[in-house]
Amino acid sequence: MPTDNTTLADSGLVSAYGGQLPDAVTRFVACALSMVNYDEKITFDQLAQVIPAGMQELVYGFKFLDQPGNPEYKDIVCADLITVAYAYALGVPPPKDWSGCDPNPDPNPDHKFISHYAANFYRPCRDNVGHLAAQTNPMSLLPANQECLPGDLIVYGNYNSPIACHVLTYVGPVNWLTGGEIRPQGQCVVNASINSFEGHMVQGSGSIWLRHLDNARNAGLYGYDWAEQVRILDLWN
Questions:
Q1: Residue 98 is part of which domain span?
Q2: CB distance 61 to 74 below 8 Å
Q3: Greater confidence, 23 or 4?
Q4: Does a structural domain hold residue 165?
Q5: Cβ atoms within 10 A of the Cβ of 74, count?
Q6: Chain segment 171-197, per-residue pLDDT in tens
Q7: How far apart are CA 6 and CA 133, in angstroms?
């Protein structure tokens, strides 16, 4: 695990969690909060300063650096947020053999949901046992009083399909430090989104946002039918 004091971007957001957390969880949360920005391209550029090296290469938008007019240029998709925070917390990205157990029978790899760019990569399955663990019933709705711990993920899906379509992370209570003041933001999640899907721009894309946990528990507010809470066991081991 890294022991350096790498400078993350200063978003002004800091954890206000009062309990004890493993160092890896603390780093994961700090990295996720540092990525919050109205312009994800600024966040992408700042990742060049973060150790371990190669953070930008983990991001979907890295593939489009030679296409500045492409909507995916420097795009930080939802799963990228998790992958970058994981790599910062543990010094290495998640194993590539986390397949997400994609049930899609299409043999075309471009149509699969098994890369770390896809939310489904962070859905527990037989290939990531010991790394990811579901904290709620799969493909259901999250109870309003469901306990979350900082670093937990919420994955979302549609129409009784086991493929997860979106993922975000809970970061606990957050304070915003601005103008010499401390402004509590409540229980929060950090949310990123792909910029375009099937040729259409995604509403709210281009930014990495802070959202309230109560809203994140409601799959319908995000346009999905089910939500599942997931714990990254590697952060706690």
A1: 13-104+112-235
A2: yes
A3: 23
A4: yes
A5: 23
A6: 999 999 999 999 999 999 999 988 765
A7: 29
Kindly tell me the sign of the dihedral angle through the C-alpha atoms of 105, 107, 112, 116. Answer: positive
Per the domain annotation, does 2 fall within a domain? no
* Structure-block tokens of residue 159: 């129409």
Asked, for residue 4, whether it belongs to a domain, the answer is no
Indicate the length of the chain as a whole number: 237
* pLDDT tens digits for range 70-126: 888 999 999 999 999 999 999 999 987 776 565 665 555 555 567 888 898 998 887
The share of the chain scoring above pLDDT 70, in percent, equals: 87
- Which among 103, 99, 141 is positioned nearest to 124, based on CA atoms? 99
**pTM for the whole thing?**
0.90
Burial class (CB in 10 A: 0-12, 13-18, 19+), 219: buried
Find all residues with CB under 8 Å of 152, minimum gap 6, and list them.
135, 169, 170, 229, 230, 231, 232
- Residue 1 located in a structural domain: no
Distance CA 51, CA 34 (A): 14
* Bridge partners (DSSP) listed for residue 2: none
> What would the two tokens of residue 220 be?
């319908």
Token pair recorded at residue 120: 């489904």
- Domain count for the chain: 1
